[in-house]
Amino acid sequence: MDAAQEWFTQWLEELNWVAFLSIPVFTGVIGWLINWSGLWMLFSPVRFHGVTVPGFREISALLPRKIQEVPGVLQGGIGWQGIVPARAAKMGSIAVDKAISKLGTPAEFYQQLEPDQIAEHIVRVFRPEVPQLVDEVMTREHPRLWRDLPRPVKEAIYERVAAQLPGVVGTVTDEIGIHIDQLLDPKIMVIDHFRKNPELVVRIFRDFGQRELDLMVRFGFVFGFLLGIPLAIADSILHLWWVLPVMGVAIGWITNALGMWLIFEPPEPKRLFGVIPVHGLFLRRQDEAAEVYARIIAEDVITLERIGDFILDGPRGDRTRQMLATALRPAIDRAAGPARAAVRVAVGPARFDTIRDSVAAEAVGRTLTPFKDPEFSARQAEKIRVLVATRTKELPPRDFVEMMRAAIKEDEWMLYAHGAIMGAAGGFLHLAIFGVQGG
């Protein structure tokens, strides 16, 4: 006991208090910088910034898998893109699997948009365009006949086509509803939109999680300071130059790992040692997060406008146009009314069918154009927002964590490695300023 007390007294006498006390301050500041710069690495820049190296793309295929995961490497570039925006497409895929798919089938989702209201809007927008549509098709397909028709006859045709419009539009919206599972793929739509607009994924984190992210940065100082206390003791006892850099690597790694854990773990409330309540910071506000997430999805990702674009101009657009044109032909025949037989004889069966098919083809594009009306789409967005928010709030906490984290989890090693490098740098900097304690 006397020997231990004597050693402790001697240790206190020989201790360089300035160097000793500066170590926790150093590790605290380094911890703050690690988490601050780690957040920058997570979210910035939104687009890849760097240089393309000739031949590097071919060489990158031979590099270790972890190196290939660094943004830009597989594309032959040396630089950086934020981990979250770089994995935007993957997050979109997971978001669909975890949350959006739980909205139901595309058909059920389409019914939530109230097709009857969509049809009424289409009729209201399309009705003034009927004369122009008829004029364009008839002028193109049978200019002489159309030119020679008296104006009252043309007006009667316009009126008859307009009178058939609700039935035609009803056919369009019904056909879309029947075949929506084949025409609309929400997963492709979401992934493609996230890939083209990675800033949306950053917004999802930033809009509801900025408070927690700022707290994570401040905790970086606390973690670093606390971990620096045993490091200072070890350094003052061992008097070895490598202690600070090597332990700095461990502290930097642990600081970043604790920061990520603080945000995402545990997904459900628990008590540490049966006393201290712990719960992932993001998970504490899942309901608020769900509202933010739903608003972004409804306003920017799954909008009626984008559904119209996807149905008409997406990978299955040709199928949509063909299906709707086929469905519209009987309605166009009805629009000809009692004069159908006479007109068919006058212009010839082949020409009559060509006119009918041209009207159908033109009508497909024009009847779906109101889908792309931003104002109407914005009104429908509220239905989508409520639906997405409700389902996201109902997600089990573990699924919610996976939806938010899985896209970046495999890249977190980059953050930890960055923390380790900064920790080592902090150790070398302290050595350069204060030297080895007792050395």
From TrEMBL:
Superkingdom of this entry's organism? Bacteria
Locate the transmembrane regions by residue number: 15-34, 215-234, 240-264, 413-436
Keyword list (alphabetical) reads: Membrane, Transmembrane, Transmembrane helix
* PANTHER family xrefs: UPF0754 MEMBRANE PROTEIN YHEB
Its recorded name reads: DUF445 family protein
Record organism: Nocardioides nanhaiensis
